[in-house]
Automatic annotation (TrEMBL):
<comment type="similarity">
    <text>Belongs to the aldo/keto reductase family.</text>
</comment>
<feature type="domain" description="NADP-dependent oxidoreductase">
    <location>
        <begin position="22"/>
        <end position="197"/>
    </location>
</feature>
<dbReference type="Pfam" id="PF00248">
    <property type="entry name" value="Aldo_ket_red"/>
</dbReference>
<dbReference type="InterPro" id="IPR018170">
    <property type="entry name" value="Aldo/ket_reductase_CS"/>
</dbReference>
<dbReference type="InterPro" id="IPR020471">
    <property type="entry name" value="AKR"/>
</dbReference>
<feature type="site" description="Lowers pKa of active site Tyr">
    <location>
        <position position="76"/>
    </location>
</feature>
<protein>
    <submittedName>
        <fullName>Aldo/keto reductase</fullName>
    </submittedName>
</protein>
<feature type="active site" description="Proton donor">
    <location>
        <position position="51"/>
    </location>
</feature>
<dbReference type="GO" id="GO:0016616">
    <property type="term" value="F:oxidoreductase activity, acting on the CH-OH group of donors, NAD or NADP as acceptor"/>
</dbReference>
<dbReference type="GO" id="GO:0016652">
    <property type="term" value="F:oxidoreductase activity, acting on NAD(P)H as acceptor"/>
</dbReference>
<keyword id="KW-0521">NADP</keyword>
<keyword id="KW-0560">Oxidoreductase</keyword>
<dbReference type="InterPro" id="IPR023210">
    <property type="entry name" value="NADP_OxRdtase_dom"/>
</dbReference>
<feature type="binding site">
    <location>
        <position position="108"/>
    </location>
    <ligand>
        <name>substrate</name>
    </ligand>
</feature>
<dbReference type="InterPro" id="IPR044494">
    <property type="entry name" value="AKR3C2/3"/>
</dbReference>
<dbReference type="InterPro" id="IPR036812">
    <property type="entry name" value="NAD(P)_OxRdtase_dom_sf"/>
</dbReference>
């Protein structure tokens, strides 16, 4: 089955389901997990310089046997070390990843480049021209960060990778509106927060009833995690997740072929999520 993809503003496509090497795999060897992900059909792999495991991500890619052209690999710029250019860091990343290019290169955190976003972005634009990064984008950006970066930019970021799930829906709505105007795709990390990090909230009963309805209709076990994935899919938002368990990886992959939630179900999740605000990562985004 061809992976489900979402179009980007630069003419490229991003696979809807991504497997990350941060959070649970942060600074750990990711090779085995990456091999399992690729063997089960995941082609979008999300790394970062800050995760300190790009070399093992590269090992997982190399040993998977999957042609490079069928994979979509992301890495992210961390804090810029004294005396190094953005290009220096990407060349180092590519060496660790054992790749000639990444499909997506992101600025990981705007707060790492205070007052320098425009200059950093100019370097990103050059790296895209050079072909070392096919698409360029950002992560954890607020509207004010975009306003700073876009002033004088030649390329509009293709992606903003953000924490996104029902408990940050309300807080994120103005940002998503802004991104829509500029044709910047949001991708979600932390999407499983309502069932993994913030259980016991108002979304729980809604997920339970939708899970029951879908399990009955589909005739096989559908999980609450999959329903959260379908909620993201209904908004055209790629899900970047991770797992240490092959069974769960299979579950994530199977989400792609589940039927859509009804508009009423999407609204019920959104409304329940809007009753509570809970951000699990980057709390400074709420300041
Ligand atoms: N740009 C950024 O600043 C940023 C920040 C955070 C994350 N990310 C990226 O996004 C990726 C995914 O982030 P995330 O870990 O927050 O994603 P997530 O999809 O919210 O959570 C995935 C985790 O949930 C666990 N899980 C899944 N279903 C579960 C269930 N039913 N019950 C209990 N646990 C369950 C998995 O553990 P098991 O091993 O048990 O399956 C896995 O560790 C990261 O690896 C990273 O690449 C980026």
């Amino acid at each position: 089955m061809a992976p489900l993809t979402i179009p980007l503003n630069d003419g490229k496509q991003i696979p809807w389901l991504g497997f990350g090497t941060g959070t649970a795999l942060y600074s750990k060897d990711a090779e085995a997990a990456i091999r399992v992900a690729i063997a089960n059909g995941i082609v979008h792999l999300d790394g970062a310089q800050m995760y300190q495991n790009e070399d093992s991500l590269g090992n997982g890619i190399a040993s998977s046997g999957k042609p490079r052209s069928e994979l979509f690999v992301t890495t992210k710029l961390g804090k810029l070390p004294e005396g190094k250019t953005v290009r220096d860091t990407l060349v180092e990343s590519l060496k660790k990843l054992k790749l000639d290019y990444v499909d997506l290169f992101l600025i990981h955190m705007p707060i790492h480049h205070e007052g320098k976003l425009k200059a950093v972005w100019k370097e990103f634009e050059e790296l895209q021209k050079e072909g070392l990064a096919k698409s360029i984008g950002v992560s954890n950006f607020r509207i004010k960060d975009f306003e700073e970066l876009l002033d004088g930019a030649n390329v509009v970021p293709a992606v903003n990778q953000i924490e996104y799930h029902p408990y940050v829906y309300k807080a994120t709505a103005p940002l998503l509106e802004f991104q829509k105007k500029h044709n910047i795709v949001a991708t979600s990390y932390g999407g499983l927060t309502p069932i993994v990090r913030q259980k016991g909230g108002p979304v729980d009963p809604v997920l339970a009833s939708i899970t029951q309805r879908l399990t009955k209709d589909v005739g096989k076990n559908v999980t609450e995690g999959q329903v959260l994935g379908l909620w993201l899919r209904s908004q055209g938002i790629p899900e970047i997740t991770t797992s240490s368990k092959e069974e769960r990886v299979k579950e994530y992959v199977a989400t792609q072929t589940l039927p859509d939630l009804t508009p009423e179900e999407v609204n019920a999740i959104t409304e329940a999520g809007s009753k509570v605000h809970h951000r699990a990562f980057c709390k400074w985004l709420d300041d």
